[in-house]
Amino acid sequence: MLSAESLKKIDYELTKYPADQKQSAVMSALAIAQDEKGWLTTETMDFVAEYLDMPSIAVYEVATFYNMYNLQPIGKYKITVCTNLPCALSGANEAVAHFRERLGIGFNETTTDGKFTLKEGECMGACGDAPVLLVNNKRMCSFMSNDKIDQLLEDLSK
Amino acid sequence: MSQPAQILLAGLSPSDPDDWRLKNYEQREGYVALRKILSEKIPPEKIIEEVKKSALRGRGGAGFPTGLKWSFMPKQYEGDKYLVCNSDEGEPGTFKDRDIMRHNPHMLIEGMLIGAYAMGIRAGYNYVHGEIWDVYERMEEAVDEARAAGYLGDNILGSDFSFQLYNHHGYGAYICGEETALLESLEGKKGQPRFKPPFPASFGLYGKPTTINNTETFAAVPWIIRHGGDKFLQLGKPNNGGTKIFSVSGHVNKPGNYEVPLGTPFATLLEMAGGMRGGRKLKGCIPGGSSMPVLPGDVMMQTDMDYDSIAKAGSFLGSGAVIIMDDTTCMVRALERLSYFYYEESCGQCTPCREGTGWLYRIVHRIETGKGRLEDLDLLNNLADNIQGRTICALGDAAAMPVRAMIQHFRDEFAYHVEHKKCLV
Amino acid sequence: MINFEIDGKPVSVPKNGTVMDGANQLGIYIPHFCYHKKLSIAANCRMCLVQVEKAPKPLPACATPAMEGMKVFTHSGQAVTAQKGVMEFLLINHPLDCPICDQGGECQLQDLAVGYGASSSRYTEAKRVVANKNLGPLISTDMTRCIHCTRCVRFGQEIAGIMELGMAGRGEHAEILAFVGKTVDSELSGNVIDLCPVGALVSKPFRYSARTWELSRRKSISPHCGLGSNLIVQIKQNRVMRVLPRENEEINECWLSDKDRFSYEGLNSEERLTRPMIKQGGVWQECDWQTALEFVANGLKDVKEKYGAESIGALGSAHSTLEELYLLQKLARGLGSASVDHRVRQSDFRADSQMQGAPWLGMPIAEISQLKSLLVIGSTLRKDHPLLAHRIRHAVKHGAQLNVINPIDDDLLTKVRNRAIVAPDKMVSMLAEVLKAVAELKGVEIPDDAKNALSTVSASDTAHAMAASLNDNKPAAVFIGNLAQHHPRYADICKLAQHIAQISDARFGVLGEAANSVGAYIADAIPFGNRNADTAGGRHGGQGANASQMLGMDDPASETGCKAYILLNLEPELDSYNPQRAVKALAAADLVVMMSAYKSHAAIQENYADVLLPIAPFTETSGTFISTEGRVQSFNGVVAPLGETRPAWKVLRVLGNILQLDGFDYETSEQVRADVLPAGNDVSAWLNNSLGSLAVSPIEAGKENKGSEGLQRIGEVPIYQADLIVRRAESLQRTRDAAAPLAWMPGSLMMQLGLRTDEVIRLKQGEGEVRMPVAQDDSLPANCIRVVSAHPSTAALGGMFDQITVEKS
Ligand SMILES: Cc1cc2nc3c(=O)[nH]c(=O)nc-3n(C[C@H](O)[C@H](O)[C@H](O)COP(=O)(O)O)c2cc1C
Ligand code: SF4
Ligand code: FES
Question: Could you say which of C58, C171, C174 has the minimum Cβ distance to residue B343?
């Protein structure tokens, strides 16, 4: 169900927890699965449940509790912009407006070419670098002026 | 103004990409405290004593005395005990733990090692905020480095002290910063806070005695051991020992982290952050992260940055996130965004928070969009009363306090919104 | 103990006790939703907030530990303000649709809202709407009403042992659901309906059929498994509308199995027989009672004259009452036949001559929770005894070790310490190994009656581990399950298990298959003189044929069957060890009288019956069941008999009168009971599992070792086929547990036979064959095929644990 490489990563995560606490690795396992598959299908969650010896509903609880799991298909690049107050005071809303204009989509929408999905984020713990955003959960971009946004979109569109 | 003392960020050169590495840390007196403890076989009680003396208070938000917390751990306990570092920094406005981990990860590791030694703990986890993935990866590398150098693992530096440390990442849930939600999350569940008592010291991770501290709290410990608790205390004020990193954000010229001794006047801090952006007037400031009550600018300008002074002024030092708002800020809009945050981040298990945060947000949203009523202000206050102090965890309080403070200090502005269906600013 | 005060009243609770415990003791009601005495504490509803002296804020009574000297106020200003605040929050998103809600009238939220809610709402925003979920045929949802108390989730995790429901999402978007596309399939699932304090989870079969205040509540006792669950039966216009648990801490606690809860649908089945019927010239006709009973009496007289009284056989199900079974055997014996039995699924009767009393659980049900080690032999535990399985899970959670010897490895939803999953014909040798191991461990001799049989046995590691587990952890118990009781070498299994228990100083019990398995013995519905042969004198009329002999299962070649049968509450084509032979024997008889609540489709179809007498199910008659722990529980009818149905005890009484037999002058069922039971109804002196000096047969080559070559069938009884009522409970028949049977076999066997999953094969036993798809289960022992019995689709097959052959079709 998951690639050998992903399984290896999950197995590594499992070494962090006591042998009878496999469930502790569920967050990493889901993140690893999502990296491989793009989003978490029912089958993927079921697989993770089986792999970690958990009830599948318990996996689903986790997958739906944490914001960064994608439970629906999304664009190739998920762009999550923090709009919380500190960032808003330093231009987050302007950055969002720029994205809307450039991509023609709002939050939770995906461009018709399936390239970009725009998401509203909560505090990322980088408020000093506002506006900040995440590309596909893992790459953080700071001080996102309109120019830098244009640059980013250009790079990603390549 | 004299150059403020620095502990956590001292000697760093952020432009150097190898800044964080073990060898660089060792050049900054890294792992000296640990070596000293292990070679001199300092009794664990002595260490806790030293931390108590330092008046180090938890940097995660509640400001609980760290030495006292450490002394709660059962000493004679036979089974496993755990040490957990709360690096799930998600309180809006706070971004200090990220810098500690990016630039000084070994200081955190050493702090945890010392804590583990002091409390007789053999395994620990560092729970890293999900959105700062590169920092998680850096922590993974730093832990590998420490392990390879014999600072982590079995028989550390040839002693009979062993400690395993692992990083665990979050994946987007503010509530996991709450310590018991974090433990649930570590156990592979939803991050739903537990009712206390029992406290983690008796029933923590996997039901075992556990101590949880914030990243910044742990990071301060090596210095305390190297220089003594008294020295640390003297850096700050009585009951407010040491330095503290303040994350300054919002309408300032140089947002960023500033480490200063506790008790430093707010005005000094503001100056360090380059002063108000565009030279505008300070309208309000949230001095301790978004969960804390806002204070009007003039009150703030009279206040020193330490736990007791800020409490006296009517707010809390919290996590040390200083959100600066100038006179262009619409307070209704600011509150609307904050209320939305708590509404979105409520874990949903307890009634007042699950139902109340949404209600609060909807009312503020209504006011902001010109559909408010004058009674709404009292209703907001009353709902805040019905949430605060009635929930399982302090998120309920965190949602309620900003509402009350905003209405208290900026009632006119809210009333204007209701009456004129638009902004005052 | 911790002493403190609530509302000025002193109370003391044990260490770790809570404020709620204290309040419960004092009878002070603190409003609550999430708290439930049998579940872990969640403290999430916040309804139970109370004031505690010196505490800066109100505290939840359910989770706040009692402290010495603490002063609690449950009705102070602070407490009531807090409670009202919570109630307001609970109501803002709750639809106020009580008039159309099924929970209306028994809703905790509705009740409390009257006391704590405000008259008008300050909430003017749009209410939340939550999509409903399909949780299967038993539970209906209206999730918008959910107040997130998580009782249902905790029930699954903590009691049912399987987490099927969870709370997904977070904050206001949190909702209770099952994993995508899944339903709730636990055999205890219906309890969440009781647990849900609002109308979010309600009974699907009951839904919209009545308002709760229209229902009257009557007490009753479950007629299904041997536990004897206490029931509340709710009725409207002489119809059973719903069954709820009646709390009894010593039996079912506050729970019910789904079988106990939803079987009532079978009472209202279309198939109910409401008038007597006689087959004349091959055609069934309804008739009046007089005609029917005379037909029966004349038929019996004819047979007795023609073939002798011994050729009359009486078979009654152990789901029948004590009174019914007693009169059944009295009738047969009065006619001169001791061929009476209730053990239609038993196949090994070698122990009969050595039995010392009625086989029973060997201990009180409640003490199962305290066991520290158990050996369960031959049982589909969860399905046969859902609440005993829960007790065992509870024990395991508290440190007990569970050991299992079984031909199947179904998930018991708890930790199994040692398991021996062996073919049916290897169960005896496995037990012999354990006996050997336990004797070695204790340094005692193997008892004489097993010595020879065990001479070639040597104990495996598993056997040693099981022996040590039983020996080292006390209290311990050894239990014989239904499957073992049906096993062709039941006598040996029972004897060996008894020795194991004795040597390891463990309790020994036989898990009662039916509600009245113990009572059936006590009523003497057995073909041999038993517990009070001397006291009841001539009642027995000597030794008769047992069920197996009566139904011609012993020796297919000879015509051993009876010439006349009285069947009470039985469908032999589903209820006997070998339905193929049973039907054949019945068909060959001159007279088959079926006393049944149902127009037994098969009986008519198979065409073996001659007369059908409509008798009352447990809800329409008074009677008594004696549960597996030996508890005598009498009950009254809760509704009038349907149509011309009559209580079976009355029918038998009248039959006795018509046949002019002595001692059939009862006016009430209580009089019948008084004839059977000693004063005070204490039957403990008659309970005895000992098998006297019965010798164990040589381990590998017992006479009954029918399935030792070729493929063996594992033919357990599926949960919702066990008795006549549940077979007709429509909603239960739509559950996963009632899914169409498959031929389960290990992959190795599939390979050997060249079969694929889902491939339809022909299964043959004796002269019968059925077609069925193949399914793979690698946990089954080699050369075994698991094909359930007691199911219409397998009724053409033979013995439950006999040889079976497979052919590709
Ligand atoms: C809603 C909520 C969010 C919190 N978030 C954080 C956090 O992000 N980081 C943190 O260190 N503490 C956070 N805390 C505080 C922790 O619960 C806990 O008090 C702290 O980790 C203890 O460490 P300390 O004593 O070193 O401060 C939060 C508390 C609440 C109620
Ligand atoms: S206060 Fe909110 S976040 Fe905390 S436990 Fe209750 S619902 Fe969850
Ligand atoms: S009953 Fe105490 S919080 Fe629900």
Answer: C171
Asked whether residue A61 falls in the same domain as residue A85, the answer is no
> How confident is the model over B287-306, as pLDDT tens digits?
999 999 999 999 999 999 99
Establish whether residue C218 lines the binding site of ligand 3, counting it when its CB lies within 6 angstroms of any ligand atom.
Answer: no
Q: Do A126 and B95 touch (CB under 8 A)?
A: yes
CATH 3.40.50.740 for domain C277-347+517-685, yes or no, is yes
ipTM, interface predicted TM-score of the complex = 0.95
B255 touches chain A (CB under 8 A): yes
> Which other chains touch chain B, taking contact as 3+ CB pairs less than 8 Å apart?
A, C
Taking the domain C365-510, which CATH number applies?
A: 3.40.228.10
Q: Is the CB of C55 inside 8 Å of chain B's CB atoms? A: no
Beta bridge partners of C376: C404, C479
Does A16 reside within a domain? yes
- Do A150 and A87 share a structural domain? yes
| Residue B12 in domain | no
Answer whether residue A98 is part of any domain: yes
**pLDDT value, residue C552:** 86
pLDDT, tens digit, for every residue of A55-70?
999 999 999 999 999 9
Q: Domain of B171: which CATH number?
A: 3.40.50.11540
Mean pLDDT estimate for chain B: 96
Distance from the Cα of residue C622 to its chain's centroid: 20
**Which of A33, A65, A97 delimits the end of a domain?**
A65
The list of chain B residues with pLDDT below 70 reads 1-4
**Which CATH number covers residue A129?**
3.40.30.10
Residue B4 lies in a domain: no
Confidence at residue C701, expressed as pLDDT on a 0 to 100 scale: 47
CATH number of C711-808: 2.40.40.20
Task: Return the H-helix or E-strand segment holding C395.
Answer: helix C386-397
Provide the domain limits for residue B115. 22-235
Rounded (to 5) percent helix, strand, coil in chain A: 50, 15, 35
Contact C325, C523 (CB under 8 A): yes
Residue B269 lies in a domain: yes
Kindly state the average pLDDT of the residues C132-143: 96
What one-character DSSP code corresponds to residue C100? G
pLDDT (average), residues C472-495: 97
Element (H, E) at A121: strand A116-121
Q: Residue B98: list chain A partners with CB under 8 A.
A: 125-126
Cα Rg, chain B, nearest whole Å: 22
User: Tens digits of per-residue pLDDT, B184-206?
Assistant: 999 999 999 999 999 999 999 99
Report the alpha-carbon angle C398-C400-C403, nearest 5: 145
Show residues of chain A in contact with C169, CB under 8 Å.
Answer: 64-65
Size of interface B-C (CB pairs under 8 A): 94
Residues B220 and B76 occupy one common structural domain: yes
State how far the Cα of C316 lies from the Cα of C521, in Å rounded to an integer: 11
The C-alpha angle B401, B405, B410, rounded to 5 degrees, equals 150
**Domain co-membership, B215 together with B289:** no
Q: What is the pTM of this model?
A: 0.95
Among the partner-chain residues C46, C63, C167, the one whose CB lies closest to the CB of B352 is C46
Say if residue C167's pLDDT is above 80.
yes
As annotated, the binding site of A for [2Fe-2S] cluster includes 82, 87, 123, 127
Cα C766 to Cα A54, C101, C109, C755: the distances in Å are 44, 55, 60, 22
Closest-approaching ligand to the CA atom of B398: 1
Q: Relative to the alpha carbon of C47, which ligand is closest?
A: 3
Q: How many domains does chain B have?
A: 3
Task: Say which amino acid occupies C662.
Answer: D
Domain match, B321 and B335 both = no
Which CATH number does C128-268 carry? 3.30.70.20
Residues B248 and B363 in one domain: no
| CA–centroid distance, residue B347 to ligand 2 (Å) | 5
Residue C553 pLDDT grade (very low, low, confident, very high; cuts 50, 70, 90): confident
Nearest Cα to Cα of residue B118 among B228, B225, B229: B225
